[in-house]
Amino acid sequence: MRRWILAGLCALWVGTAGAQPSTAQLERGRCLVEIAGHCANCHASRGPDGAPLPGRGLAGGWVIEEGPMRAVVPNITPDRETGIGNWTEAQLIRAIREGKRPDGSNIGWPMPADFYQRISDADAAAMAAYLRSVPPVRNAVQGRSSYPFPVPTHPVVANLPPPADNPVARGAYLAGPIAHCLDCHSGRGPDMRIIPGREGAQGLSFTGPWGTVVARNLTPSTTGIGNWTLAQFTRALREEIGADGRPLMPPMGRGRVWAAMTDQDIADLFAYFRSLPPLD
Fold it and tell me: What is the DSSP letter of 257?
């Protein structure tokens, strides 16, 4: 018997190795995929206005361009012809944590394998189980991703959840491997690797029908969230309104997905961001 406890988000999953997915495991996977990890932020099929299409939250098709890089987001529903329906659980877990397709090729950014490589064994299995359980959507995504740099490999580096009695560690696990907040809110070089020392401080730009927005500084400096209160941070996640009263823009301001996070999850995230070095 394995027992994994992570206070806050979908707080407890008790599972038996090798067993069929339980209701608790599938619920944990749903929370990780649909809420904290918000896989639909990239994997949703979108209309001309950039808004996700109903019922197609994981069906893919969005094209993300960052400089000379062009990423075509795949269908990750279990459709056998156009999605992941023929992938085994082990292949899906490897894709999530190592950024490797079943054919051995590497999955490039924006798939955050550099964060997902630290997802615990239990959470990776829960995510895979949930993805294999959602309704299949037939959507043959057109085109292939192209990168002007080598796509790196991401070997798994850890497989344990954080201590349940450490808010900063819980927040780091939630902001890193799970929600990968620092994926967008960190400086990246031309090869899309995070610039050491710019974690949380230098956001990426995102261009769409809404215009161009830049992910904000999340470190506790005066140019980041150093003057924010927990209440303001909570409002930003629950209501998508910043401390200055302005609504958040996409990709953050899109459907209040993180409103479903618990108060403890949000407090843990805030504790972690406040623990980062203040950077301008």
Answer: G
For the stretch 212-258, pLDDT in tens is 888 889 999 999 999 999 999 999 999 989 999 998 887 776 667 77
187: left (phi over 0), alpha (psi -120 to 50) or beta: beta
- Angle 63-64-68 from CA coordinates, rounded to 5°: 115
Two tokens, residue 262: 């618990």
pTM, to two decimals: 0.84
Q: Which residues contact 173 (CB under 8 A, 6 or more apart)?
A: 6, 118, 161, 162
Question: Which residues have C-beta within 8 Å of that of residue 166, sequence separation ≥ 6?
Answer: none
The residue written with tokens 């618990």 in the block is 262
Backbone angles phi, psi at 192, to 5 degrees: 65, 15
199 touches 276 (CB < 8 A): yes
Closest CA to 83 of 93, 73, 97: 73
Nearest to 117 by CA among 200, 185, 173: 173
